[in-house]
Amino acid sequence: MLLNSNLIEGCIKKDRKSQKELYVLYYGYALRICLRYTKNKDEAVEVVNDGFMKVFMNIMRYQVEQSFNSWLSTIMINTAIDHYRKRIKQLEMDELNEQHQVEDRENILSNINYEDLIKLVQKLSYAYRTVFNLFAIDGYTHEEISDLLQISVGSSKSNLFKARENLKKMLIENNQAIIS
Fold this sequence. Notes:
The protein has 180 residues and is an all-alpha fold. Helices cover 71% and strands 0% of the residues.
């Protein structure tokens, strides 16, 4: 997507038409990012809208020489993480404190298409889904995840392990349903 500098200037001046144009232009891209972190499309739309509010509030910080997609992606991921942090308070603390050893990344994605994987990932709990996305898809380390989500490294590893186990079970169930 080629971004017009006049569009950015209009957004900096809080021009509603420019804001709407930017929103429409990048809505699909932002939604794809947020769907990885949320339980369903409605929640993803909420995160996207919150993210665009941050974009419009901070558009003057965007530097033209920087990729707008990267800048927007960072805002959307951070907004999804903020959304997650609000939800984490509702989760059982015991779930977050369990410790498990986890082997290095394994590729459970190779036999499933992207849309089917997203549907399965969305079925995971907030904690599992967020850690799985950050580690397996976005490439964050457990230490980085620990800092971002304000959880222990052990909890990050535990949540990743459990997310993978749940995804494997769902994949097996899906494959059996297809075969039957």
